[in-house]
Amino acid sequence: MINFVQFTFTRAFLAIVTLLIVCFIVFSLMELVPGTCAERYLAFKNTQGSQITYEDIEAEKIRLGLDKPFLYRYGKWISDIVINQDFGDSCILRMNINELLSGRFTLSLTICLVALIFSYLIAIPVGIISATTKYASLDNTLKFVSYLGIALPNFLVALCIMLFMTIYYGDTMTGLFSQEYENEPWSSAKLMDFLGRAWLPIFVLGWNATAFALQTVRALMLDENDKLYVMAARARGVSGMSLLWRYPAKHSLGPVINSIGFDLNRIFSALPIVALILILTEAGALLIEALARSNDQQLAGAIIFLLTATIVFVNFVTDIILAIMDPRIRKGVMGGG
Amino acid sequence: MSHLLEVKNLDVKFDTDEGRITAVENISLSLDQGKVLGIVGESGSGKSVTAKAIMQLNPGNTNYNDDAEIILDNENVLRFTSKDDLKKIRGGKVSMIFQEPMASFAPAIKIGAQMVEQLLIHKDINKNEAKEISINMLQRVGIADAEKRFNQYAFELSGGMRQRAMIAMALSTMPKLLLADEPTTALDVTIQAQVINLIKDIIQEYQMGVIFITHDLGVIAQIADDVAVMYLGSVVEKGPVNKILKNPKHPYTKGLLEALPDVNNLDAPLRPIPGNIPSPLDRPSACVFRTRCPNPCDNCREGKTEMGLMEVEPGHWVDQCCINCG
C-alpha cells in the first residue's frame, strides 16, 4: 500500500514535470515566430488606417512586458497560469483569454470526452466479440463498418449528415445551439437543445475513434487468444464467459487503456475540422484560427496548455488504472511490493 | 482389465486455406493406470495434436474421422460435446502440463487464484477448502513458502518453481490421466532431473497414467514404461521402453538413437537422420518415411506399400514396411 501511494506520487510528479516541459517547448516555439505581439498588434492597427511610429512599438512592448528576458517571461506566464489561473490577454483580440475560453474549452473537452467514452464503450465489447465470434459474417460486417469509419474523412461524414438533415428536417444542424437558445443562460431546455445538436459532432468524431479503438481491441484479443495460457486455462476446464473475460480480455485491455490519452489527442485534433463545418463555437476552431490566421501566440499557448494538461492528466489516470490492473507493471515499477 | 486410455484408429486433419492437412493418421495407443507412455518424435510429428485430441483442445478447424475412438474410463471422449462432459476431460479426469510454464500461467492472475478457480470448477468445495488443497499441493511438489507463492504471480517465480507450480495445479483435481507436453524441454538440466523425479514420485503416489511427450530419448529412458515413436503423424514403432531403446527395428528409431552423442566416444561425429521432415502439405502417400528411408525397396519407393504395425516380439510393434523391405 505504501508502495502504491509512492507510485502515485511519483507518477503525479512526473506528470507535472512533463506538463512544464511541454509548456516550455510551446512557449519557446511561440518565441520563434518572427515579430512580437506588440509589432503584430500595431501592424494590425496600421492596416486599419492608424499611423504607427517606432516609439509606439517600443511603448507597446514595455506595456506588454516584452522587453524582459525570455526566461523571466516564461516564468511569469507559467506562474500566472498556475497561481492565478490567469492566461493573460489575447494578443490580437485584446480580450482576457479566460473570458474568451470560458465555456468553449469545456465544450470542446466535453464533446471529445463523450466521443472517447462512447467509442470505448462500444469498441471494447464489440472488439472482443468480433475477435472471438464463430460467425464470420458478423465479424466481417463489423470490420466493414469500422474500416468505413477509418476511411471516411470526418468532414465528409459531417457534410453528408448535414445534407440529409437539411433535406428531411429542414435544419442544417450547424452550431451547438438553436438560434433561440444561442445567448440564453443554461437551462434544462437549453441543455436538451444542446444534446439534440451535440450528438452530430460526437457521432462523427466517435465513429472514427470507435473504428480505431475497435481495430486495436480486436487485434489485441486475437493476439492474446492464441497465447498458451488461454489454452492452459481451457485445459483446466475454464470455459465460456469466465474464460473470455478473465483470460484474453483482461490481458488485452492494458494496451487499450494505454491508448486512451493518445486517442483523446487524436479526437481533439480532428475536432476543429468538424467544428468548422458544423460552425461550432468551441476551442479547437479557435486554436486553428489563433495558430494559422491571426498568429495569436497567447491564445494558442493557452489552448495548447489546457489540452496538454488534460492529456497529461488522462495519462496519469490511465497509468494508475494500469498499475491496479496489471501486477507486472505495479510490481515492476514499484520494486517488487 | 481394460485400459485407462485407449486411442483407436485416430486421424486428425486440419482444414486450412491450403487444403486439408493430415496431422495424425491412423494411430492406436493404450495406457494403463500407473504407467508412463512416452511419445517421441520431431516437431510436427503429431505428438501434441494427439494429446490435445484427448482433451478436445485442438482448434475449430480440426476434423476427426468417424471411426476414431479415444476411450477414457470406458467413455469415448471424442463424442463429448456438453459442457459437463468436456469439464471431465479438461482438468477433471485429465490434466495437462505444458512446455512453457511461464506462458501457461495467465500473467496477471495470481497462481493461487488460478488453482482455486480450477478446483471450484471440478470439486464441490468452497473457496477456503480450495485454498487449503492448493497450498498443500504446492508444498507436496516441493515449493517452500507455499502460502507466499500462492499469492504471487508467475513472473515472480523461478523457472523450475513455475513448472512445479504447474504440476501442482495439474494434480490438484486428482486426475486419472496426466498429459505432459514436453514439460522439461524449457528447463535447464539440473531442474529437468528434479522435475522428472517429481513426476515419477507422483505417479507412484497417485497411481495415475501419464503420457509424456518429448523429443528427448534420454528423458524417455528415465521415465517411460512404454514408448511410441511418431513420424509425420504416424506411429512407426511402439513397445516397452527397454525393447525399443535396446533393439530398435525401425530405421527412424535407429536414426533418433544414433543422433544422440555417444558418451564413450565424444569425438565421433553425430549422425543426423538424412533429409528433412516433409511439409504436412505434401505428406508422402503409403509409407510416410519412404522419402528418408536409408534402404527402401522398390515397392516402397514407388509408394505401393501400406503402412501398418506388426508385432515383431511380444509387445513390440513396428511398421511393416521396413520389415517387408528388409
Short description:
Chain A is mainly α and 337 residues long.
Structure write-up:
The complex is a heterodimer of chains A (337) and B (326). Chain A has 337 residues and is mostly helical. Chain A has two domains: 2-100, no CATH class; 104-326, Orthogonal Bundle (MetI-like fold), CATH 1.10.3720. Chain A has 15 helices and no strands. Chain B is an alpha/beta fold and 326 residues long. Chain B folds into two domains: 5-93 and 175-325, P-loop containing nucleotide triphosphate hydrolases (Rossmann fold); 103-174, no CATH class. Helices cover 35% and strands 23% of the residues of chain B. Chain B has 13 helices and 13 strands. Chain B has helices at 47-54, 83-92, 101-104, 111-122, 127-140, 146-150, 159-171, 189-206, 217-223, 241-246, 251-258, 298-301, 320-325; strands at 5-16, 19-31, 36-40, 62-64, 69-72, 75-76, 94-97, 177-181, 209-214, 226-231, 234-240, 309-313, 316-319. In chain B, strand 1 and strand 2 form a beta hairpin. The A-B interface holds A 134, 227-240, 246-247, 250-251, 325-328, 331, 336 and B 55, 57, 60, 83, 86-87, 90-92, 95-96, 98, 100, 103-110, 114, 117-118, 121-122, 153, 155-156, 169.
